[in-house]
Amino acid sequence: MLENAPYYHAVGKEIDVFNHAYKNKIPFLLKGPTGTGKSRFVEFMAHQLDKKLITISCHEETSSTDLIGRFIIKGAETVWLDGPLTTAVRDGAIIYLDEVAEARPDVIVAIHSLTDHRRELFIDKLGETVKAHDDFMLVASFNPGYQRGFKELKPSTRQRFIAVSFEYPESQIEIEILVKETKIDHDTAKKLVAIGNKIRNLTELGLTETVSTRLLVNAAKIIHSGHPKRASVHVAVVEPLTDDLQTLVALKDLCDLMI
Ligand SMILES: Nc1ncnc2c1ncn2[C@@H]1O[C@H](COP(=O)(O)OP(=O)(O)OP(=O)(O)O)[C@@H](O)[C@H]1O
Ligand SMILES: [Mg+2]
């Protein structure tokens, strides 16, 4: 293993699957709710494979021009500037399109020829087709859970990828993540994970998304740095979940009993 690897604890077979996808030049799609380790996993894999990672956080304004490149004016000349996708395609980096479903439709069009057997990028502004470097890999994430502003990926896009679902880890693994990530004691980590699981099971709350590992990590961090435990859970776990007053009170009471 290389030095300074990002810490990532596998929750299933995702490391093997990613390695096989990479070897076979098949793009990789991570599905799952917020805070389940998707970005961390991609950082970890890029480090393991010793490849440069270029991450793009897609949003509704993200266009193919942002990814592929544009002409810019430099003095009296216009010069072409490769965008991050073109750079990755030429140099053989791993590109991670975070929340790819949010991007404008022309982004999806642009990646189609890259994500099938052609592995090439068409740069319409240059009239040039770039063959992907042998080491190039496209990785994307999308969160199928959003209820509002929910965007789907077309089957013709989805079916180009090897896809893995990321979920909340089982208790033993999540406890270990909290301990390793924040140096908190095992007993407190165990209680935080119990709180997480308890709230996750309260499906009647109708939360858009429930307690993520990220929230538990944040609680563990501020407890470890000296903030009182109950107050930490209130601000790091409960408040980020909801704005509904009744739910806030109920969840805080519940957590107070568990930490
Ligand atoms: N399997 C894991 N191993 C190590 N750390 C993890 C793992 N899962 C979650 N974490 C912790 O949770 C935090 C959030 O993870 P990450 O940023 O990768 O989530 P994400 O799935 O990319 O979320 P989003 O969809 O919001 O981008 C990490 O910073 C890390 O502390
Ligand atoms: Mg992420």
Describe the structure.
With 259 residues, the chain is α/β, with parallel strands linked by helices. The protein has 2 domains: 14-165, P-loop containing nucleotide triphosphate hydrolases (Rossmann fold, 3-Layer(aba) Sandwich), CATH 3.40.50; 171-258. Helices cover 42% and strands 17% of the residues. The chain has a 5-stranded parallel beta sheet, sandwiched between helices. Strands 3-4 form a two-stranded antiparallel sheet. The protein has a two-stranded antiparallel ribbon with strand order 6-7. Strand 6 and strand 7 form a beta hairpin. Helix 8 packs antiparallel against helix 9, helix 8 packs antiparallel against helix 11 and helix 10 (229-238) packs across helix 11. It is elongated, with a radius of gyration of 21 Å. The site of adenosine-5'-triphosphate has 17 residues, from helix 2, helix 7 and helix 9.
Topology:
Blueprint: H1 14-23, E1 28-31, H2 38-48, E2 53-57, H3 64-68, E3 69-74, E4 77-82, H4 84-91, E5 94-98, H5 105-112, E6 120-123, E7 128-131, E8 137-142, H6 155-158, E9 162-165, H7 171-182, H8 186-201, H9 213-224, H10 229-238, H11 245-258
Parallel strand pairs: 1-8, 1-9, 2-5, 5-8
Antiparallel strand pairs: 3-4, 6-7
Helix pairs in contact: 7-8, 7-9, 8-9, 8-11, 9-10, 10-11
Bound molecules: adenosine-5'-triphosphate (ATP) and magnesium ion (MG).
Magnesium ion (MG) binds next to helix 2.
